[in-house]
Amino acid sequence: MRFSRRLSAQEPNRITSAARENHPLDASDSNPTHHGLAPRVYTADPRGDSRARELLAEFVSARDNRPVDPDRLYLVSSSSQAYAWLTKLLCDPGDALLAPRPGYPLVESLAALESVAMLPYRLEWAGSWLVDASSIAPTPRTRAIVLINPNNPTGSYLTSDEISHFTTLGLPLIADEVFFDFPLTDTPRHRIAGEDRALTFALDGMSKNLAAPYAKFSWIEVSGPADDVREAQRRLDIIADSYLPMSDLILDHLPQMLAEIPAQQARVRARTATNLATMQRLSTGVTTVYPPEGGWNVLLRFPDVIDEEELVLTLIRDAGITVQPGYFFDMRVPGFVSLSLLLEPETFENAAKKVIDAINSAVQAE
Questions:
Q1: Cα–Cα distance measured from residue 229 to residue 69, given in angstroms and rounded to the nearest whole number
Q2: Contact (CB, 8 A) for 159 and 62
Q3: pLDDT of residue 90
Q4: Residue 172's pLDDT band (cuts 50, 70, 90)
Q5: How would residue 245 be classed by pLDDT, with cut points 50, 70 and 90?
Q6: What span, in angstroms and rounded, lies between the C-alpha atoms of 123 and 155?
Q7: Which residue among 73, 178, 184, 250 is least enclosed by CB atoms within 10 Å?
Q8: pLDDT for position 29
Q9: What's the gap between Cα 349 and its chain centre?
Q10: What is the average per-residue pLDDT within 200-229?
Q11: What's the start-to-end Cα distance of the chain, in Å?
């Protein structure tokens, strides 16, 4: 397994080794909480507070019905930070990641900030969204594959066969599963977290589980072949130790946050299901709903003679609403807009009607 050359993963120097063996008084310790100057003691742990990781591991173990090792977990402030750390771990400047298209543009922006390119593999619509295996084309500088499960904006989950194929490509997997627990259909779902056939970094977090963007608490779970995991964690510890991003003040709220997840997820799923049904009921004639399997968004298809950008600008000027055009997500063909399924139901229905009315008017004008 190849890791980036950005960081030194050398063995500890002689002083560090001697201190670990002999446990002397550290007269250079500048942590004020060790010297009676703060109301609580803080000891840095690059992976995050051990008790918090144990609580999180218990929660994920029960949720997924599999054992989760707390030492395989890293606590971070956000999935964006997780992407940044993993890009540092796996890629040198000028390297590349494979990522799905259509896809959320933030991933490409985060890679660019690390001077790393993003190469696409395609999802194609065939009654459902499927990975086009022929489009998965790693180059000599490709270092990992990004999997979004379910994808944004398509709302499609990866099939077990697709996941199996990705594990055979000899590259680490970065699996973003923040929307996994928001299904909209009975389509079988397969988590990538805990995958042991390839070195895997699974991302999850509270901001989506609680539908609370202010809840800046996310995590990385590392899994895969034992030797690869051991070396990856040795190096990831160095990155994590350089940042130590998670405040103990946030971790104080972890038990309450974990307890609130089931009820909040149920509330969000009820909202998204209601609005999706409304969208499907309203969409007749020239518009078609591409039904998502999960997530918080829905794609609406319309004749590609209508310019996406002009449609959105018309909605802003004349209807007082805005939506996201398909080209924001690098859709292969024009003729899409994406709507959020999180709106209050009455607000969503009114907005959907305005979008469909604008499309119908544009078709009649052609």
A1: 12
A2: no
A3: 97
A4: very high
A5: confident
A6: 11
A7: 250
A8: 75
A9: 28
A10: 96
A11: 56
Alpha-carbon gap, residue 266 to 196, rounded angstroms = 30
CA angle 143, 147, 152 (to 5 degrees): 135
- Comparing CA positions, the residue from 5, 31, 165 lying closest to residue 98 is 165
Residue 202 DSSP symbol: E
pLDDT for the residue 9: 63
14: DSSP letter: H
Angle, CA of 95, 100 and 101, to the nearest 5°: 110
Give mean pLDDT, residues 88-102: 97
Distance CA 114, CA 105 (A): 15
Identity of the amino acid at 42: Y
Question: Can you tell me the distance from the alpha carbon of 187 to that of 154, in angstroms, rounded to the nearest whole number?
Answer: 14
Label residue 273 exposed, middle or buried (CB < 10 Å: 0-12, 13-18, 19+).
middle
Band (247; pLDDT cuts 50, 70, 90):
confident
Two tokens at 123?
A: 């999802």
Cα–Cα distances in angstroms (integers) from residue 348 to residues 182, 278, 297, 343, 355, in the given order: 18, 8, 12, 5, 10
**What local confidence, expressed as pLDDT, does residue 21 receive?**
86
Closest CA to 117 of 104, 137, 98: 98
Residue 74 pLDDT: 98
**Whole-structure pTM value:** 0.95
* Alpha-carbon gap, residue 349 to 278, rounded angstroms: 7
Amino acid letter for position 146: V
H-assigned helices in the chain: 14-22, 50-64, 79-90, 106-113, 160-167, 206-209, 226-243, 248-251, 254-282, 308-314, 345-365
- C-alpha distances out from residue 96 to 139, 152, 157, Å: 8, 21, 24
Q: Is the pLDDT of residue 56 over 90?
A: yes
SS3 254: helix
> Residues 266, 272, 277, 282: what is their CA dihedral angle, to the nearest 10 degrees?
160
Query: What is the pLDDT, as a whole number, of residue 10?
Result: 67
pLDDT at 124: 97
